[in-house]
UniProtKB/TrEMBL annotation, chain A:
It comes from the Bacteria. GO terms for biological process: carbon fixation; fatty acid biosynthetic process. Residues 1-257 form the CoA carboxyltransferase N-terminal domain. It comes from Puniceibacterium sediminis. This is Propionyl-CoA carboxylase beta chain. Pfam families: Carboxyl_trans. Keywords: Ligase, Transferase.
UniProtKB/TrEMBL annotation, chain B:
Residues 1-451 form the Biotin carboxylation domain. This is propionyl-CoA carboxylase. Residues 587-666 form the Lipoyl-binding domain. Its cofactor is biotin. The keyword Transmembrane helix does not apply. Its EC number is 6.4.1.3. Pathway: Metabolic intermediate metabolism; propanoyl-CoA degradation; succinyl-CoA from propanoyl-CoA: step 1/3. Keywords: ATP-binding, Biotin, Ligase, Lipid degradation, Lipid metabolism, Magnesium, Manganese, Metal-binding, Nucleotide-binding. It comes from the Bacteria. It holds the Pfam family Biotin_carb_C. It comes from Puniceibacterium sediminis.
Length: 510, 666
């Protein structure tokens, strides 16, 4: 008996060594952790339960039968993050470059199936050279099996991808269909075709980092939702994100004890809006002063900075935040910001996370680049996302809410539950100057008259009361009491039930 | 007594005057510019009158506008504060013409003391010690030697037209005088076209010590001890204290009596300050007299118990002083730290913007020290570019200097200011500097001790351990809370460990923690145990802790895997990790910050006034590249090294934020 137990331990030890000490050292030399080390840091200590440790590939071409390693380049299983269950797969670059074989894919599919069945998130750690070329179409089939499961799991359990090494070719499309992608600065990259192919086909000379590094995908392409300094930080921050998310669409978002007074008054918010309507201010200050313990987890921080998206907690409960940022492009809506916010709103709605919308929007960005780029359809995405969302929706207009952008930003008309405005709010079709020049076109040449008209327009419309008179604004609130009002609003909505008409699925303007 | 006074000032000093006026039952009128519409002094005053656009030369120092405000409000007297119109004799005259009392000295005294040469002559006549020297023309080296012997070595040989150190020599003996005289003369001739030279005593180890005087219109004049103001940065006072750690009672008395003699010689009334320079042998020499309330007056108030503003108001009202020289007793020690909106990590450049957080320490007695904070701002207020960057004067009083310094350290630690750059860390650093603590200071202290500017403080092992242990205790609270989230797998909860590693300031500490209801004991690998208690909970930005019986106040921020801790002038990233996390974290590569040496970044928010170079220009090290205006200051940005301009991103008139790229180099 003892011998048999020793055999097991021996096999486990061999499996844990993956591609061997030399390759582990090489991985470390690149500033990267191994697949198992990453799982250790991602999960609660000693909570990992591994599946399929002894799986090996079945390929016999190109001498592959001589090159079998336990686990076949991916470590899979489940464990807990702060006691809550998650499923995880972590590709092992030390084993055949982490390449994806038929069996490698099967291991991933197994935990994805279990995750959907049992209602827990899937966290994928990607570090792979790509398809296992020796296996040919079997490898491609493996990818597609994973893709199909990504699609099925979407909206059922949260899916999070960590890119911690290369992720190229078809491999990119699995993370692409997950809810969040996080990268590691300097040691990860993602692209459909690499620099060599790019050079051959288009004559462009570009490095892997420039083509698909963390900076590219968090600032330019918006493929990634965030980037971290190294593996340790990335894994710690994914733990932090998971603390905000429900385990599945069958469960409510998590609640945790909080140490902040829901009625906390912030007198400094009374002076947040500058005297001059054209002076920007930092919307993040408002977010941090509303949130429990000033804790905010920002998503896509470096992309389309004219809109802010992320998670906070109110009374310990997760709330998704969408806020215009007047510091960037005056907080206008454009193609990028609409797409960014729309995707975020849909994620929140899919997982029953209430949405807080903070509005200071002068309108949509004008220009040929916007129109040629299809701002109509992209802007419509955000409108659509808000319109279909059935989660609790609370909106605070701090300053400008002009034109169609007013409608888009979780207005009363899109089934906003609580629509508050600060006394500084200006809810109108457009600013006074523009409006006057249209309404009083005949007086355009008379500067004095135009100024007088503009003043009249401002007095009448540059305030929240016209909207409040019609009930489009539920109440005008003191800035200082925003946290209290918003907390109470969400508290009152905990039992909200709203269902959209049955349909196979909608047809959001993609 | 007056029914209503107008304060012709803004900021903390206006607030300071309003407080005393209200305590005396006097109504107050504030004046404000557009930039100060929501300022604290406006909120505090009984009424407020708008006097124009933000620049002071279009508002606060326009005599006509202030006079109009006085007429409009019906104020019977005016307190000018410091700066602005406080030493403007025309303003005092205008007030006199309309029968409005000036809470300050008579016009004549302002005029006489306002001129450097006149004031020095009057001082000499009044028997006040002045820097010995020879003001006349010196013909040759022999005469220079003769004069130097009379003045006493060391001497300073100066060009009459001199400035900026040109034509200036210090001589310690005869032949140095001969050489120095000739070279100064040559340099002066070539630099200024004027080779007149004069000689005065060179004051070694100079300290700036000033005497507070108080005089009434009935011939009474008393002195309220001295203030030591040697901690200065480019002639801007930073830290003051009273009394001076350097003066003995005899010197104090001599200085005080001379100060009074000077005040009486010019018929001075109200509060005034006579500034002296004091050398290493306690010889003191008159510098100038400030005919107003000084910024640093609170330290005098704290050690004498006399409200100077109240005295000024009473004197202006014609009352005789109720205090005699014998009543003046110096009690204990007071420190003042000036909190400036200047970023010490960026060469003390001015910083403007919104105070997203502003929480001064409570004004009360804590552990033997009394805290006083004179301020003119509030959380959510704005530091504008138009005025003095001083935002508060934090004072502590205690029976001894050591206790006053310790009180100041704690008060600085507890002072929360966010949203702008400020000099709190620098002030903390000075409070911990051994030379400052010993009282061995001169006006050159900052220039000598921080020759390359301020880069923050390296904490000692002892201080780091206290912080490390506290962070482990705080981290434990945070981790236990995280493990209490809903939706856990029943019976398989996460257990928060007791063994941790703390990485801070390049050090790594392995510790274990044992918690109990009253706090926690943190034990280091070498067996040292620190006992931590405090009521910090996650989200608190100030941790008021007790470590082994001594207070530890930390500013706490979040970073991934730990805390950002600010304390005692240090700004630390503290990572608290499990042993396994720590082991793996050690495998992570050091990231080198991006190379910005080929970029010219805007060091402060401001307006580009001028761009001096174009694309393709070759620039030399030190060459002016452009001018940025901020806080009324024109800051010239210069090339750090030789290079060629490859791109210019900004033009005159552009408003830039910190770290915006102004231009790039090849």
């Amino acid at each position: 008996m003892k011998d048999i137990l020793q055999v097991l331990e021996g096999r486990r030890a061999e499996a844990r060594l993956g591609g061997g000490q030399k390759r582990i050292d090489a991985q470390h030399a690149k500033g990267k952790l191994t697949a198992r080390e990453r799982i250790e840091l991602l999960l609660d200590e000693e909570s990992f339960e591994e599946f399929d440790m002894f799986v090996t590939h079945r390929c016999t071409d190109f001498g592959m039968e001589q090159n079998k390693v336990y686990g076949d380049g991916v470590v899979t299983g489940w464990g807990t993050i702060n006691g809550r269950m998650v499923y995880v797969f972590s590709q092992d670059f030390t084993v055949l470059g982490g390449s994806l074989s038929e069996t490698h894919a099967q291991k991933i599919c197994k935990i994805m199936d279990m995750a959907m069945q049992n209602g827990a998130p899937v966290i994928g750690i990607n570090d792979s050279g790509g398809a296992r070329i020796q296996e040919g179409v079997a490898s491609l089939a493996g990818y597609a099996e994973v893709f199909q499961r990504n699609v099925m799991a979407s909206g059922v359990v949260p899916q999070i991808s960590l890119i911690m090494g290369p992720c190229a070719g078809g491999a990119v499309y699995s993370p692409a269909m997950t809810d969040f992608i996080f990268m590691v600065q300097d040691s990860s990259y993602m692209f459909v075709t690499g620099p060599d192919v790019v050079k051959t086909v288009t004559n462009e000379v570009v490095t892997a980092e420039e083509l698909g590094g963390a900076s590219t995908h968090t600032r330019k392409s918006s493929v990634a939702d965030g980037a971290f300094e190294n593996d340790v930080e990335a894994l710690a921050e994914v733990r932090r994100l998971v603390d905000f998310l429900p385990l599945s669409n069958r469960e409510k978002p998590p609640v945790r004890p909080f140490f902040d007074e829901p009625g906390r008054v912030e007198t400094s918010l009374d002076t947040l809006i500058p005297e001059n309507a054209n002076t920007p201010y930092d919307m993040k200050e408002l977010i941090l002063k509303i949130a429990d313990e000033a804790d905010f987890y920002e998503i896509q921080e470096n992309y389309a900075k004219n809109i802010i998206t992320g998670f906070m907690r109110l009374e310990g409960q997760t709330v998704g935040v969408v806020a215009n940022q007047p510091m960037v492009l005056a907080g206008c809506l454009d193609i990028d910001s609409s797409r960014k916010a729309a995707r975020f709103v849909r994620f929140c709605d899919a997982f029953e996370i209430p949405i807080l919308t903070l509005v200071d929007v002068p309108g949509f960005l004008p220009g040929t680049s916007q129109e040629y780029g299809g701002v109509i359809k992209h802007g419509a995405k955000l409108l659509f996302a808000y319109g279909e969302a059935t989660v609790p929706k609370v909106t605070v207009i701090t300053r400008k809410a002009y034109g169609g952008a007013y409608d888009v930003m979780s207005s009363k008309h899109l089934r906003g539950d609580f629509n508050y405005a600060w006394p500084t709010a200006e809810i109108a079709v457009m600013g006074a100057k523009g409006a006057t020049e249209i309404i009083h076109r005949a007086d355009l040449k008379d500067a004095d008259k135009i100024a007088a008209h503009a003043k009249n327009y401002e007095d009448r419309f540059a305030n929240p009361f016209v909207a409040a008179e019609r009930g489009f604004i539920d109440e005008v609130i003191q800035p200082r009491s925003t946290r209290k009002r918003v907390s109470r609003a969400f508290a009152s909505l905990r039992g909200k039930k709203l269902t959209n008409p049955w349909k196979k699925h909608d047809n959001i303007p993609l | 007594m007056f029914n209503k006074i107008l304060i012709a000032n803004r900021g903390e000093i206006a607030c300071r005057v309003i407080k005393t006026a209200h305590a005396m039952g006097i109504k107050t009128v504030a004046i404000y510019s557009d930039a100060d519409r929501n300022a604290l002094h406006v909120k505090m005053a009984d009424e407020a009158i708008h006097i124009g656009p933000p620049p002071a030369n279009q508002s606060y120092i326009v005599i006509d506008k202030v006079m109009e405000a006085i007429r409009q409000s019906g104020a019977e007297a005016v307190h000018p504060g410091y700066g602005f119109l406080s030493e403007n004799s025309k303003f005092a005259e205008a007030l006199a013409a309309e029968g409005v009392a000036f809470i300050g000295p008579p016009v004549g005294a302002i005029e006489k003391m306002g001129d450097k040469i006149t004031s020095k002559k009057i001082a000499q006549k009044a028997g006040v010690s002045t820097v010995p020297g020879y003001m006349g023309l010196i013909a040759d080296g022999d005469e220079a030697v003769k004069i130097s012997a009379q003045v006493g070595y060391p001497v300073m040989i100066k060009a009459s037209a001199g400035g900026g150190g040109k034509g200036m020599r210090i001589a310690w003996k005869e032949d140095e005088v001969r050489d120095g005289f000739q070279s100064s003369k040559n340099e002066a001739a070539s630099s200024f076209g004027d080779d007149r030279i004069f000689i005065e005593k060179f004051v070694t180890q100079p300290r700036h010590i000033e005497i507070q005087v108080l005089a009434d219109a009935h011939g009474n004049c008393i002195y309220l001890g001295e203030r030591e103001c040697s901690i200065q940065r480019r002639n801007q006072k930073v830290i003051e204290e009273a009394p001076s750690p350097f003066l003995d009672p005899e010197t104090r008395k001599a200085m005080g009596e001379q100060a009074c003699a000077l005040a009486q010689a010019v018929g001075y009334t109200s509060a005034g300050t006579v500034e002296f320079i004091v050398d290493g042998d306690r010889n003191f020499y008159f510098l100038e007299m400030n005919t107003r309330l000084q910024v640093e007056h609170p330290v005098t108030e704290l050690i004498t118990g006399i409200d100077l503003v109240e005295q000024m108001i009473r004197v202006a009202n014609g009352e005789p002083l109720s205090i005699t020289q014998d009543d003046v007793k110096l009690n204990g020690w007071a420190m003042e730290s000036r909190l400036y909106a200047e970023d010490p990590y960026r060469g003390f450049l001015p910083s403007i913007g919104r105070l997203t957080r502003y929480r001064p320490p409570a004004e009360r007695a804590v552990e033997g020290a009394t805290v006083r904070n004179d301020t003119g701002v509030y959380e959510g207020g704005e530091i504008s570019m138009y005025y003095d960057p001083m935002i508060a004067k934090l004072c502590t009083w205690a029976p001894t200097r050591t206790q006053a310094i310790e009180g100041m350290r704690n008060a600085l630690d507890a002072f929360e200011v966010e949203g702008i750059g400020h000099n709190l860390p620098f002030l903390s650093a000075v409070m911990d500097h051994p030379k400052f603590v010993s009282g061995d200071i001169t006006t050159a202290f900052i220039a000598e001790e921080y020759p390359d500017g301020f880069q923050g403080v390296e904490l000692s092992d002892k201080a780091l351990r206290r912080i490390a242990a506290t962070c482990v205790a705080m981290n434990r609270v945070a981790e236990i809370r995280r493990a209490r989230v809903s939706g856990k797998l029943d019976n398989h909860e996460r257990k928060v460990g007791d063994i941790w590693n703390v990485a801070v300031q390049g050090e790594s500490y392995d510790v274990s923690i044992a918690a109990d209801p009253k706090g926690a004991s943190v034990t280091f690998a070498d067996g040292e145990t620190l006992r931590i208690s405090g009521d910090w909970t996650p989200g608190d930005q100030l941790a008021v802790m007790d470590v082994d019986g001594a207070a530890l106040v930390l500013k706490v921020g979040k970073i991934s895997g730990g805390f950002r801790i600010r304390s005692r002038g240090a700004d630390l990233k503290v990572h608290v990790r499990s042993p396994r996390q720590a082991e793996l974290a050690r495998l992570m590569p050091e990231k080198v910050p991006a190379d910005t040496s080929k970029l010219l970044l805007c060091p402060m928010p401001g307006l580009i006034v001028k761009v001096n170079v174009e694309v393709g220009d070759e620039v030399q090290e030190g060459q002016a590249l452009c001018t940025v205006e901020a806080m009324k200051m024109e800051n010239i940005l210069r090339a750090e090294r030789k290079g060629t301009v490859s791109k210019v991103n900004a033009a005159a008139g552009d408003s830039l934020a910190v770290d915006d790229v102004i231009m790039e180099f090849e």
